[in-house]
Design brief:
Distance between the termini: 29 Å
CATH class: Alpha Beta
Number of strands: 9
Structural class: mainly beta
Number of helices: 2
CATH architecture: Roll
Shape: globular
CATH topology: Structural Genomics Hypothetical 15.5 Kd Protein In mrcA-pckA Intergenic Region, Chain A
Strand order of the largest sheet: 2-1-8-7-4-5-6
Order of helices and strands: EEEHEEEEEHE
CATH superfamily: MM3350-like
Radius of gyration: 16 Å
Helix content: 10-25%
Oligomer: single chain
Number of domains: 1
């Protein structure tokens, strides 16, 4: 996945991370893995996944949702990557923090990955296996002394 934008502005030389994900992992687990891979520490913000067919996979308690939308959105804790029907080459978006709009472009690279061959073991959690680029600080701090 690639961190595309923050606050609607495209990032120059966007950072990216490759994750080893099972089709049985939930979208909630994927959100946690993405936030870890992008060094987020303040996890009090809402997030959602937006699939290309206009389905939205949301937090169970996302208060930003309109009541009319509640029936059209899927709970991230109950919905797995397999149940979303994602295949090789499919893309979707992960948005963290609806105020700052950290938008990640996600692509399913392969669905038939052998975890032992790729990583050396079968893990229960999602595993980051490759990364590039500099991750911007969640609150644009440039030193430990910044508020």
């Amino acid at each position: 996945m690639i961190l595309l934008t923050k606050g609607g502005e495209e990032l120059v030389d966007p950072p990216g991370r490759d994750l080893l994900v099972s089709s049985q992992h939930t979208f909630a687990e994927l959100a946690t893995a993405i936030d870890r891979a992008f060094a987020r520490w303040d996890l009090s913000h809402s997030h959602e996944f937006r699939l290309l067919d206009d389905r939205r996979i949301v937090m169970e308690d996302a208060d930003e949702l309109e009541e009319a939308d509640a029936g059209r959105h899927l709970n991230e804790k109950a919905y797995t990557l397999s149940s979303a029907g994602l295949r090789d080459g499919d893309t979707f978006v992960y948005v963290f923090d609806f105020g700052d709009q950290w938008e990640h472009g996600c692509t399913v690279m392969r669905v038939d990955v052998d975890a032992v061959q790729e990583w050396g073991a079968v893990g229960r959690e999602i595993v980051p296996i490759f990364g590039w680029g500099t991750i911007p600080d969640q609150y644009a701090r440039s030193s430990p002394d910044d508020d």
